[in-house]
Amino acid sequence: MPPSVERTALAPDLSISRVLTGLWQVADMERGGRVLDPESAARALRPYVDAGFTSFDMADHYGSAEIVASHVREGSGAASAVQLFTKWVPKPGPLTLSGARAAVERSLERLRTDRIDLLQFHAWSYADPSWIDGLLHLQSLRSEGLIAHIGLTNVDAAHLNLVRATGIDVISNQVCFSLLDRRAAGSMSDVCRARGVKLLAYGTLAGGWLTDRWLGQSEPDWERCGTWSQMKYGRFWRVAGGWDALQRVLRAADTVARRHGVSIANVASRYVLEQSSVAGVIIGARPGEQAHVEDNLGVFSFSLTGADRADLEAALSTLTPIPGDCGDEYRKPPFLTASGDLSHHVESFPSPYAVERRADGRALCLSGTPWEAMAGFSRATRRGDAIHVSGTTATHGDRPIGGTDAAAQTHFAIDKIEGALWSLGARLEDVVRTRVFVARIDDWEAVARAHGERFGSIQPANTLVKADLVGNEYLVEVEADAEVSGG
Asked: What would the pLDDT profile of 332-356 be if each residue is shown by its tens digit?
């Protein structure tokens, strides 16, 4: 008999198959204006459900994936037998409750359901605090019953911790995680364990590069690869060390695969499944073109032994680590996307805050809080190449952010500083001095480490002191000075 599909509880009322079927490729298949017939595509996907792969992952921008998925569920008997996860990926800029409601209602209509099992949110920039608005809006819609659970996608460890510390009830974070990309095994897994969040791992097969097909082959012209997935993850193996590095990983995975009578893809998936906090891996499908039901079942036919892990680690230790934290490939160079930039994702990034230009040559960044008018200050002021950012706390509107977690508050304060600099034509890299005030001296190390995560490569002059802050909810306040190089 074939092995049974492993299941896990993503939440007390949400059981999922540990290999989820990803529908990103639907958008790729519909390039050029083609639209899949939803019933034909669903018919091609029903064997996954029959085999026990009942969980499907998609997004509002994956072409007609939500419509196809609705047909899969309707053709599979009881609606509860299939779990449909989608995403809200709004454009950069202000996010309103009405806009969030419209996005959710559109997905509800396309999925032909009255409640979304898991809605995952993607933020393009932490420097624009509207991403917090987006999550708060989703929390409101969840209280109305339109969403069963909220998840994140491509959020780094510091901001996952910030979200949970703020009291936003996210249960999962979907991130890239593979033999080539092990960023999620570090601080991300630490935060997940501490905050009770599970990981949904995508890119586990690196767009098909981590399969038997490429073992021992000559390097192809990766820029002319046929799918967006291959183009995207071709950038990953190039950063990790190139074609030779990929072949070293494939040979090690093949050694393990032969021991267990499985495929390289099975080994790559099993490696990630056995990592801390990983609830499931997402393996893509191209409905009507490629089916991997039988091979995917092989993931559950074995477990990695100590010898297996040693063989894999020997190869992985030769790789160049993928830079940054989870999701950075969508926020900073090198952009490890299909196009190598964000051109096929977003058109522009509006300034996070309003800027008022004065006759005396100053430019004032204003966040719109009543305190600015009452106390007579701006969030930041620029004159010439010099920018001075006011003392900044972890506050968004009238809401404190980060709860009682001093590190989370520090990250949000620095996000606001980055947003003010961005609005005035500067970058965090232009900061030459920071001053940090902590309400509790016992928090100094957590705050200093958070400061180090954000400024470690910049290394501005810095002072940290204990001070009484205005408001018992504030644990840290940060101010900064910047000089814009090159005018």
From this structure: 999 999 888 988 888 889 999 999 9
Beta strands in 439-487 (DSSP E): 461-466, 476-483
Burial 140-177 (b: 16+ CB within 10 A, else e): ebbeeebbbbbbbbbbbbbbbbbbbbbebebbbbbbbb
DSSP conformational letter for 184:
G
Per the confidence metrics, is the pTM higher than 0.90?
yes
Alpha helices, DSSP H, located in 399-475:
406-423, 444-455
Pairing outcome for strands 19-22 and 278-284: parallel
Alpha carbon distance 180, 204 (integer Å):
9
List pLDDT tens digits, range 120-179: 999 999 999 999 999 999 999 999 999 999 999 999 999 999 999 999 999 999 999 999
Within 10 angstroms of residue 241's Cβ, the number of other Cβ atoms is: 16
Q: Which distant-in-sequence residues (6+ apart) come within 8 Å of 172 by Cβ?
A: 10, 118, 120, 149, 151, 152, 197, 198, 199, 200, 279
User: Pairing between strand 170-176 and 395-396?
Assistant: unpaired
The rounded distance, in Å, linking the Cα atoms of 324 and 333 is 10
Secondary structure element (H or E) that encloses residue 310, with its range: helix 306-316
Closest CA to 130 of 351, 348, 327: 351
> Which amino acid, 6?
E
Asked if 69 and 112 touch (Cβ cutoff 8 Å), the reply is: no
Query: Which element (helix H / strand E) includes 434?
Result: strand 431-438
Q: Reduce the DSSP state of residue 29 to 3 states and report it.
A: helix
Tokens of 393: 């706390």
Cα end-to-end distance, the chain, whole Å: 70
Q: What tokens appear for 415 in the block?
A: 């996000």
Q: Please name the amino acid found at residue 214.
A: W
- The first and second tokens of residue 295, run together, are 């091979």
Closest residue by Cα to residue 351 from 339, 333, 363, 335: 363
Cα(232)–Cα(229) distance, rounded to whole angstroms? 5
Q: In sequence order, what DSSP letters do the residues of 373-406 get, joined into one string?
A: HHHT--SEEEETTEEEEEEE-SEETTEE-STT-H
**Both tokens of residue 429?**
């890299």
